[in-house]
Amino acid sequence: MKKIIKGIRFTPACYPDEIEEKIQKYRKQHYKLPPRKVLRTPEQLEGIRESAKINTALLDHISDNIREGMSTEEVDKMVYEFTVGHGAIPAPLNYEGFPKSVCTSINNVVCHGIPSKNDILRSGDIVNVDVSTIYNGYFSDASRMFMIGEVSQEKRKLVQVTKECLEIGIAAARPWARLGDVGAAIQEHAEKNGFSVVRDLCGHGVGIKFHEEPDVEHFGRRGTGMLILPGMTFTIEPMINMGSYEVFVDDADGWTIYTDDGLPSAQWEHMILITETGNEILTY
Predict the structure, then answer these.
(1) Which residues bind a divalent metal cation 2 (predicted)?
(2) pTM of the predicted model, to two decimals?
């Protein structure tokens, strides 16, 4: 016999009724909502947190060992061995054809740099190391900037302001805010310091898959975009350029993204969980 369902619940059954009622109010006002499937259950969060622990420990391991004179191929080997040694899988490896276990992006490489034995870390370089982990089917993601040897004051400022942009973006990512609030906060801080925000790349939902909804842009207008709901997990990963925000993809490998004007770029990335009262940083 066909069962008649009275009304349609948006949140999983384990979510408090207060959250469900609030979402339904926003729904009636035609706010843009994320898909229901990105609201995590306690079981999913347990798996995501275990993956995140490995991901953060991996970045700590890199922090302890990255050095001048090292090739990015050596960084890739370090990432692979640490990850599989903890019973996990490097998410980038063979993802849509990406050939390595980590992205290493030096100076004017914005992101998706492919490790190579020919890319040697030299004094004065800034490098982003972006690691992503699959553990028992759950995904986590984060990146850090590293300054090699004697780095110029201009590059140091870029790295510092980019980290501040990340922190400001995380502070804006609160329940019942809008994704446009996050982007606007980041953009305002970057431009106030004379830098620009890359438009063509963004943060993203992550946890059950490597890349999920929503797209998290690092520029925008307050009061616009998708409503941020408790239970969402996504990355905030501003890419801040010293010069123009324009970028291009290397034709030779189809992955490496460079600044159009050849000036340096920096990026920091954390993965967060939106809670009922704010957010929780899962990876760093």
Answers:
(1) 141, 204, 237, 269
(2) 0.96
